[in-house]
What we know:
Distance between the termini: 50 Å
CATH architecture of the domain at 4-87: Orthogonal Bundle
Mean pLDDT: 76
Number of helices: 6
Strand content: 15-25%
CATH class of the domain at 4-87: Mainly Alpha
Helix content: 25-40%
Structural class: alpha+beta
Order of helices and strands: HHHHHEEHEEEEEEEEEE
CATH superfamily of the domain at 4-87: lambda repressor-like DNA-binding domains
Low-confidence stretches: 81-99, 134-138, 140-153
CATH topology of the domain at 4-87: 434 Repressor (Amino-terminal Domain)
Amino acid sequence: MPALGDGFRSAREARGLTLSDVAEQIHIRSVYLNAIETEDWSSIGAPVYVRGFLRTYARFLGLDAEAAVAHFNEVVPPERIAAAPSATGEHEGGRLSPWAIAGTLVALLLVAFVVVEYVMYVQQGRGTADVAQATAAPQPAASASGSLAATAPDSPTPLPTPTATPPPQHKLSIQVTAPSWVRVTVDGATVVEGILPAGVAKSFSGHVADVRIGNAGGVRLVVDGRTLPPLGKSGDVVEQRYTL
């Protein structure tokens, strides 16, 4: 049987395509496509990523995707694949990924918003106290006989204390039906990342959620009680942003 990587390379070259041409069309980085053709599986990472990339690349080239995955499972035992997935895009070349930068900016904006609201609250509370102290007590009124009649001062009406109304938050839920690597980032903060077994269900509240799934057919998403359609088939690697 010819080598798995050679079959992909031959099919690509028969179409007159470069790795960059394929990467632009199927949205898989050329470094991972080259790893498939050279069978450098450790450069891709966990087996679930390898199988997902194999299916996508094979379908694009008109090859039998399931046969390619079966051949991979036969010749490459799972223990030979690096445990840490390198296809997540967390860091490349020591640089922060765009998602990490965006998350940091969102966090800084939230901190600044809270600080400004607190300062305004303190300043308005002090102004209310100054107004109450500066209010003079009413003088007793003179009676018809010339004596002074004591009158009770009116109680000052308390001013309402301003409170910051936080923006409404919504809920995202995930339900794992088959083992899958899952990463969920809500409002710039990663709330879950790793391989989840079947039967796990988790819920998150926030405004913007980024979800990356290594086995799209094994995870269901529910937004505000509404079950979303499947993001892909078993073994597909997908990433999606939801504005809740």
